[in-house]
Amino acid sequence: MKRRSLKDDTRAAVYVEFLVVFMPMFTLFLGMIQVALIFAADNLVQHAADAAGRSAIVVLPDDPARYGGPDEAPKNQISWDDNDSDSSSGSTIAGMDFGGTFSFRGDSRLNTIRWAAWKPLLAIAPTPQQAIDSRGSDSVREAIGEAGLRLVGGLAYNITAVSVTFPSGPGAEDAQISGTQSFSYSRDSPSELTTRVTYLFNCAVPLAAQLMCDAPFNLRRQSEQGYHELGGAMYPIMGEGSGFLGMLANLLQSCFHILRAESTMLYQGAEYQYASEQGAESDASSSGGSGGGGSGGGSESCVDRGSCCRVCSSGYACGDTCISRSNTCHVGRGCACNSSEVCP
Asked: d(Cα 274, Cα 279) in Å, to the nearest integer?
């Protein structure tokens, strides 16, 4: 039997060609999936920045009585260095007060704004396995993860990976993450407030994550300022000042990508003083927050019915509407009146 020479043997040539083409094409396919996940995450980070911005322009000038009092949380000011164990405002997830369980870095006013950005980002949080497994996912399906597992993982991950900062203007690299930060407001010269959200996105697509994202100790080369801002998270394990926890995160060797988005809005500050700033009870209490129903606190004068947009008989007045006596009013006096106040 005559043996074929190697140069004349063309058997399995198609298989060899397939192997040559398959790996680059498969790598490109995985890279496209990772790019799509990063793009979707970037859109959600922008949404989180918008939510945090809307929260900031309301929370920063709000009544100090809601955040610990004028001595602890004066309006138009936040403290980055306080340890807040009473950040329950705005931190309810599925009816559970998650924020009040832990002590976070920053005062109540700052953490209330953080929660506004924290909640939307639960949708892109890594699953518990992705967050702690240094080998990464074994399949694209595991990289995408299940919604329920993302929620569970996000409850812990997002408090370490979401930072909300307030630079001096759009694109400015002077975001503060320590000390006390004050915000000025003048009725004659309205100012804009820029809110920036920095998010540490976990890349988990096999092979593509190692090619497109960085291990924790290489994150600085992505964005020096972004890495710095991550130290302003509720419970920072990444960024400057992360300490021992940051060293542990480096050992996991998971891959990450820093995402940042900004939202600039007109700052609607308050030049007037709240009752709590004048040594009296808070505006919420004086508007009937205890269920008493009166804003005048025992005033003898009555109100003409024609001047009321709504008269409350079963509940009590809260702003421009009536609410149940079992609820607490969180707005100032409006055009609604209690029936006991209306002139006969």
From this structure: 9
User: How far apart are the C-alpha atoms of 220 and 223, rounded to whole Å?
Assistant: 5
CA angle 67, 69, 70 (to 5 degrees): 115
The letter for the amino acid at 10 is T
Global pTM?
0.72
Is residue 125 packed enough to be buried (19+ CB in 10 Å), middle (13-18) or exposed (0-12)? buried
The Cα–Cα gap between 233 and 62 comes to: 22
d(Cα 12, Cα 28) in Å, to the nearest integer?
Answer: 25
Residue with tokens 């998270």: 233
Q: Which two tokens stand for residue 35?
A: 């790019």
The residue type at 245: L
> Cα–Cα distance between 312 and 62 in angstroms, integer?
26
Closest CA to 261 of 175, 183, 179: 175
Grouping H, G, I as helix, E, B as strand and the rest as coil, residue 34 is helix
**What residues contact 84, with CB distance under 8 A and at least 6 apart?**
103, 104, 105, 106, 107, 108, 110, 111
- As a whole number of angstroms, the distance between CA 218 and CA 72 comes to 38
Give 10-residue mean pLDDT values along the chain (344 residues).
65 79 90 94 96 94 85 87 61 51 79 93 86 67 79 85 93 90 80 93 88 85 88 81 58 82 88 73 44 40 82 82 78 81 81
Identify the H or E element spanning 192. strand 192-203
Map tokens 């497994």 to a residue.
133
